[in-house]
Amino acid sequence: MKEPILVVMAAGMGSRYGGPKQIDPVGDNGEIIIDFSLFDAVNAGFKKVVFLIKKSIETDFKEIIGDRMSKIMDVKYAYQEVSPLPEGYRVPQGRDKPWGTAHAILCCRDVIDAPFAVINADDYYGGDAFRLIYNYLLHSRDDELYRYAMVGYTLENTLTDYGHVARGVCVATPDGFLKDIHERTHIEKRAGLAQYTEDGGKTWVTIPKGSIVSMNLWGFSETILGEITDRFPPFLDNALSGNPLKAEFFLPTVVDELLKSGKASVKVLQSPDKWFGVTYREDKPVVVEAIRRMRKQVIYPDKLWEGDE
Questions:
Q1: What does the pLDDT look like over 167-176, one tens digit per residue?
Q2: What residues have CB less than 8 Å from 64, skipping those under 6 apart?
Q3: Average pLDDT for residues 190-206, to the nearest whole number?
Q4: Nearest to 36 by CA among 297, 294, 307
Q5: Coil, helix or strand for 121?
Q6: How does DSSP classify residue 160?
Q7: pLDDT per residue over 244-302, tens digit each?
Q8: 133, 217 in Cβ contact below 8 A?
Q9: Which of 124, 171, 200, 252 to pair with 152, CA 20 to 30 A apart?
Q10: What is the arithmetic mean of pLDDT over 3-12?
Q11: Residues 289, 104: Cα–Cα separation, whole Å
Q12: What's the Rg (C-alpha) of the chain?
């Protein structure tokens, strides 16, 4: 039985704050959000972590989090850059950002040799989420279908008061399997409703209250790597001819294609927890207060790891 791996997508870490060293702590002892995710992951059973980063932040990342975690978990690194691309493709002039979350997973293929969970480095998921996904990956097996999973959150538990967010809006079957997922890149709170726009705000569509959304906490068997590999060149064909500077290869899009083609099922593991993230600077006080509250409830100890200063 292969032990599940945790993949942490951190290639964009620090971009909103000018670099990794400038990321604001959210814990009273200087912890950043990823510290709490890793604490929850270890408690859930994860023993190996793959950090997906950019080469340019490697030194700072190891100083901030990687070297400490290497004393607790088996730590591996993968790197996401705008290049290299598959043979026959060239990076378009002016493109400097990587190719999205599906491409991020592709960049990890050389260090993934077991079922794995995927999280964002700058999202707080809660302990229940890691227990749910670890137990699923430990006991699930592919059969005639790829047996994947995702942890879903209630939309209202994932919004910010300070701007727009991107979410994968999900539709589940009555027995708890993912039916559809639609990537909405601009969702806002508007007049007490959650609404999205796809035309720069000219028109808005209301998302039903209580909708389940993906926060990019997925569970996969290794089969997803081959599927992403096969789909990357067709994505590039479309991107380079249509939107070469901004097109992104989204992980939920790949999952949706596998669902539609009947190759995969995705179990929706619903978390009651509230998501927290510092999408905007104004979000920070909310996250800081939430962490303090959880420490008072003894959800987290004053020192996450033995030996912490």
A1: 989 999 999 9
A2: 20, 21, 23, 32
A3: 95
A4: 294
A5: coil
A6: -
A7: 999 999 898 899 899 999 999 999 999 988 888 887 888 889 999 999 999 999 999 99
A8: yes
A9: 200
A10: 94
A11: 32
A12: 19
pLDDT at 273: 86
Token pair in block for residue 133: 């996904």
Bridge partners, residue 188, by sequence: 195
> Average model confidence (pLDDT) for the chain?
92
- Which runs of E-coded beta strand occur in the chain? 5-9, 48-53, 74-79, 116-120, 123-124, 146-154, 165-172, 178-190, 193-196, 205-206, 212-220, 264-270, 276-277
Instruction: Give, in words, the CATH class of 5-154+212-270.
Output: alpha beta
Q: Torsions phi, psi of 52, nearest 5? A: -95, 115
HSE-up of 212 (CA within 13 Å, CB side)? 21
Q: 187 near 67, Cβ under 8 Å?
A: no
Q: Any idea what DSSP says for residue 207?
A: P
Residue spans of alpha helices (H) in 243-304: 251-260, 284-296
Give 215-235 as a DSSP string: EEEEEE-THHHHHHHHHHHHH
The residue type of 31 is E
Is the CB of residue 64 less than 8 Å from the CB of residue 215?
A: no
Which residue, 164, 185, 176, 194, is CA-closest to 250? 185
Alpha-carbon span 67 to 291, nearest angstrom: 23
Cα–Cα dist 21/170, whole Å: 35
The model carries a pTM of 0.91
Residue 113: count of CB within 10 angstroms of its CB: 11
> Can you tell me the distance from the alpha carbon of 116 to that of 46, in angstroms, rounded to the nearest whole number?
10
33-47 core/surface letters (b: 16 or more CB in 10 A; e: else): bbbbbbbbbbebebe
Q: Round to whole Å and give the CA distance between 278 and 276.
A: 7
